[in-house]
């Protein structure tokens, strides 16, 4: 979940296509080591998708 959260934060910050390295940078800035396997899977699953499309798949109940 932390990898996805970093991806979404980068997207909301204007990075339309966050890379694995971008996500590692965000996570390491708060003392979290990225899991390479999970990160690779996340990037492959989200490749080519728009941030709003990804966010649209969540239901927050507001």
TrEMBL record:
One Gene Ontology MF term: structural constituent of ribosome
Short name of one Pfam family: Ribosomal_60s
Entries under InterPro entries matching the protein: P1/P2_N_sf, Ribosomal_P2
GO cellular component, one term: cytosolic large ribosomal subunit
Keyword entries, A-Z: Ribonucleoprotein, Ribosomal protein
Keyword Amino-acid biosynthesis listed: no
One Gene Ontology biological process: cytoplasmic translational elongation
Family per record: Belongs to the eukaryotic ribosomal protein P1/P2 family.
Listed name of the protein: 60S acidic ribosomal protein P2
Organism name: Claviceps pazoutovae
